[in-house]
Each structure stands twice: as C-alpha cells, then as structure tokens.
C-alpha cells in the first residue's frame, strides 16, 4: 500500500477520463514489480470524493482509498508535503507544523489501515510504502495481528537534530515500529532511526534490531532500483531510436545535449543548476549554438505554496536565460513542464550526451538509474549529486556537490568535455551494476528479510 495508486486520471481530448501511469519514483519502482503478480495495491487515485471503483491494471487489483478535500489539504499537502517532506530533505525549505495537519495525518492513516485490514488475506503480507503512511504499521497491527507487515521509506530519514523538531515525533516512531521490518534507502538512515528510537522511546536498539514489547523489529538498508531490462529494451526499440534522432534534429543538431528530468520540486536543485548554466553561458564556456539544455520539470504538488513559488521562479529564470542568451530559433534552454510516456522519456535519455541529476537531497533518484539503463551503447555522461541516494551505488558518475556553484560549473564542464573512453568505462560499470541490482533484486532482498523477520519468535533479550 502506498499513498498513491500507480495511475493518474487525466482528461482525454474528447473529454473522457483516461488513466495513465503517475510520475514519481515510488510508482516507477513498484509498478513493474507487481505487474502480473497476484496482489492488491491499496492507495489514493488522486482527486477528492468517494473512492472510485477501478479495473485491474496490468493484473494488479486496485483498491482505492478516498480523500476528502480537507484530507487532501491537511494530510497530503499539509503534514506529508508541508511538514515531513521538507524536514526529511535537510529542511532545504522550512517545514511547517500545524496541529490540524497532524489530526488529518492520523485520520487518513487510520483509513488506510482499515482498508488494508479489510482486503488482506488471513496471514497475508502487507507492504506499506513511504512517509505518508508512517502510522499505518502500528494501526494495522492492532487491527490484524495475524499479518506480516513491512514498511519501506523511499525518502531520506533525517538525523536526530532535525527529526527532533517534530512535535509528534514519538507517535511517528511508534507507528513505524508496528512493522516487522523497516527498510530505508541508506544505512545512514537506519542508523538515524535507531538513534532516535533510543533517544525518544528509550527502547533497546541497534542499527539492525529494535526490541518493542515482546517483538523484535528488524531494520535495514535496501536501495530501491528500476526495471533495468525493461528500460534498456525500451531504449533500444527502433521507434525509440528513431524518435531520439528526430529529437536531436529538432533541437538543431547541436554538438551536445544536456538533459535534466525532475518533478518540479525544490529538493531537485533546479534553480542552482540553472544558475550554473547561466554563468557558463555568460563566461562563454558553453555556447548556445553548440550545446542545448533540455529541462523537463513535470508538475508536482501544484497546490502547495512552496511548489508554486518554485515554479514561478524557475520559469522566470528560464525566460531570463533564453532572453539573454538565446537566438531566433535557438533557445538556450528547452523547458518542458509536462508529463511524458515512457517511450518519450527513453528517447530523451537516448539523446542526452550529459544527464544532469543534481538534487540538493534525494532518497534515491530513479531518473539517474533510468538514464544509465537507457544508454544501451555505453555512451553518455552522468553528472550526479553526492546528495542523491543513487550516488552510493553509481560511483562512476561525475559526482558533484550541488550547493557549491563553482564546483557544479566545473563538474558540468568536465562531463561535457570528457573523452569517449572515460565516458564509456564509467557507463559500462554503472550499467553492469544496475543489471545486477534491479528492482527484482531489491524486492527479493527486502521480502526475504521480511520473511525471516516475521518468523522470528525470539525476543531481543535472547537474540542480542
Ligand atoms: P521522485 O521519487 O522524487 O519523484 P525519482 O527520480 O526517484 O524522483 O523518480 C521520478 C520518476 O518519475 C522517474 O521514474 C521518472 O521517469 C518519472 N518522471 C519524471 N519526469 C516525468 C515526466 N515528465 N513524465 C513522466 N514521468 C516522469
Ligand atoms: O519518492 C518520493 C515520492 O514522494 C513518492 O512517494 C512519490 O511517488 C513521488 O515522490 C511523487 O510524489 P507525489 O505522490 O506527491 O506526486
């Protein structure tokens, strides 16, 4: 179960409602995994009002949970994306605390727990995803003690000095501890969690095991991944290859294409990247005729104030840069604020000589992994932020600190000027890693650990 179902309702040109896959890392990871697996996905279908009855999608049963307009405002936009999201991303924007938001978070988590309790088979397994639903493991265990419950956090888990700001920190930790296994992207996050459990709840904890009542809760790092083979197959398709060629032509057949693909989110470092690019244009290190930047920024959380401000600022800056450095028919930046289907994204990845993925903080960043998987001819330079979870795995990327403007400019130039041999060696190594560590490997390692955790009847005292 996840806050969001893997579908977005959108209006077809004839006014009919049509469904398409929703953008975002969680859906990209889990949708290929569950497809054709006998499973039910419990989540929100977007929008407000009664939960729609949905058809199975790719063999997965969809069980929708309703949100009222108030829930949407106070749970999703409020506590989840106004409080937890910024707090968990190094507070790069100021987290906001409202008691009303917390009440909505509890209420919606209760509704999700009841929905899962109603559909899960006796002795079944429920895998709860992400920060919107941190109370669900505890609530669900109270309703259905027969279930095996997993929890996985897709976003970073912050260090104690940040988490301690949360007015309802103890309840959130206790909610997560309802799970048999709590998975994080990075070992550092598991360590932060264990430290907090000791400090706030005074429970016996290591980075791997926590004693709660008469149970042992397992904790671990399981870096999420993508369906590598699927992306590679898509990128290698003749129509996608032809589309990539066409895109390059439409971009004016430049010597080099730089691509960024993000949700329009302040954690993604879009403004810092634009500033670096603009300074490189101003200094003449990058020339519009030779190089283009394609910035895809898909709309996200559009009713949240911080996101509206970000979009305005990004669009103003793109306009300024194009006004200052572009030429007729040759903009410096091609800016696309739209969702694309998978084939179009794959074509964009194929066309990019340099992929700039420079978030200020990111749990994983699957765009970076998708780019690597799509480079079927082992070309292409990945410029990757040290603050993305993916940097721990894609060590051969050109790593960069996006807070350091000069460093960002230099690294972008290094990636643009790198020789084919260096680029090829790095890309080959990263692709080999992703073929071994794909989404199925992630699910296998998490689920086998959950299996062991659930069968543990031992208590912390006897397991050490
Ligand atoms: P996050 O989880 O913060 O959204 P990720 O990089 O992990 O960030 O995942 C983003 C996912 O959304 C990727 O799978 C990417 O392909 C998808 N995505 C990004 N931009 C678009 C877009 N314009 N249209 C459709 N999907 C997109
Ligand atoms: O990966 C973090 C995340 O919040 C996921 O939960 C979600 O898939 C993605 O970002 C998109 O966010 P939203 O569901 O708010 O559109």
TrEMBL record:
- Which superkingdom? Bacteria
Task: Kindly give the InterPro entries that the UniProt entry links to this protein.
Answer: Glyco_trans_20
Q: Would the keyword Ion transport turn up in this protein's UniProt record?
A: no
Q: What is its EC number?
A: 2.4.1.15
Specify whether Disulfide bond is a keyword of the entry: no
State a single Pfam family of this protein.
Answer: Glyco_transf_20
CDD domains, per the entry: GT20_TPS
Signal peptide range: none
UniProt keywords, alphabetically: Glycosyltransferase, Transferase
Annotated GO molecular function terms are:
alpha,alpha-trehalose-phosphate synthase (UDP-forming) activity
Alphabetical list of PANTHER family matching this protein: BCDNA.GH08860 (PTHR10788:SF106), TREHALOSE-6-PHOSPHATE SYNTHASE (PTHR10788)
Family indicated by similarity = Belongs to the glycosyltransferase 20 family.
| Protein name per Swiss-Prot or TrEMBL | Trehalose 6-phosphate synthase
State the species of origin.
Micromonospora purpureochromogenes
């Amino acid at each position: 179960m996840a806050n969001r179902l893997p579908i977005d309702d959108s209006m077809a040109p004839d006014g009919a409602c049509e469904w398409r896959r929703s953008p975002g890392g969680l859906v990209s990871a889990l949708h290929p995994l569950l497809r054709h697996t006998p499973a039910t996905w419990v989540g929100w279908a977007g929008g407000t009002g009664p939960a729609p009855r949905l058809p199975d999608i790719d063999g997965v049963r969809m069980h929708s949970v309703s949100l009222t307009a108030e829930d949407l405002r106070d749970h999703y936009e409020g506590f989840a994306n106004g409080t937890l999201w910024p707090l968990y991303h190094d507070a790069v924007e100021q987290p906001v605390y409202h008691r009303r938001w917390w009440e909505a978070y509890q209420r919606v988590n209760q509704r999700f727990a009841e929905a899962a309790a109603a559909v899960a088979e006796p002795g079944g397994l429920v895998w709860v995803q992400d920060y919107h639903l941190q109370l669900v493991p505890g609530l669900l265990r109270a309703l259905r003690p027969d279930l095996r419950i997993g929890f996985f956090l897709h976003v970073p888990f912050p260090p104690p000095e940040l988490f301690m700001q949360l007015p309802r920190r103890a309840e959130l930790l206790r909610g997560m501890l309802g799970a048999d296994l709590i998975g994080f992207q990075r070992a550092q996050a598991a360590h932060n969690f264990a430290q907090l459990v000791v400090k706030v709840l005074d429970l016996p904890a290591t980075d791997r095991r926590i004693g709660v009542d008469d149970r042992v809760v397992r904790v671990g790092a399981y870096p999420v991944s993508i369906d590598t083979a699927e992306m590679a197959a898509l990128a290698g398709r003749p129509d996608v290859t032809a589309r990539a060629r066409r895109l390059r032509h439409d971009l004016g057949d430049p010597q080099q294409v730089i691509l960024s693909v993000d949700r329009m989110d302040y954690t993604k470092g879009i403004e810092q990247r634009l500033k670096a690019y603009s300074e490189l244009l101003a200094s003449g290190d990058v020339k519009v005729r030779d190089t283009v930047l394609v910035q895809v920024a898909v709309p996200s959380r559009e009713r949240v104030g911080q996101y509206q401000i970000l979009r305005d600022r990004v669009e103003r800056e793109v306009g300024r840069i194009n006004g200052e450095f572009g030429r007729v028919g040759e903009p410096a930046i091609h800016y696309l604020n739209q969702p694309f289907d998978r084939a179009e994204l794959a074509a964009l990845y194929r066309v990019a000589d340099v992929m700039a993925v420079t978030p200020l903080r990111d749990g994983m960043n699957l765009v970076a992994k998708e780019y690597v998987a799509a480079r079927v001819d082992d070309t292409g330079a990945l410029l990757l932020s040290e603050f993305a979870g993916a940097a721990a795995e894609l060590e051969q990327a050109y790593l960069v600190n996006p807070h350091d403007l000069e460093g960002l400019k230099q690294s972008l130039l290094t990636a643009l000027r790198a020789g084919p041999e260096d680029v090829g060696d790095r890309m080959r190594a990263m692709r080999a890693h992703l073929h071994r560590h794909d989404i199925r490997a992630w699910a296998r390692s998490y689920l086998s650990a959950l299996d062991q955790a659930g069968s543990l009847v031992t208590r912390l005292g006897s397991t050490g």
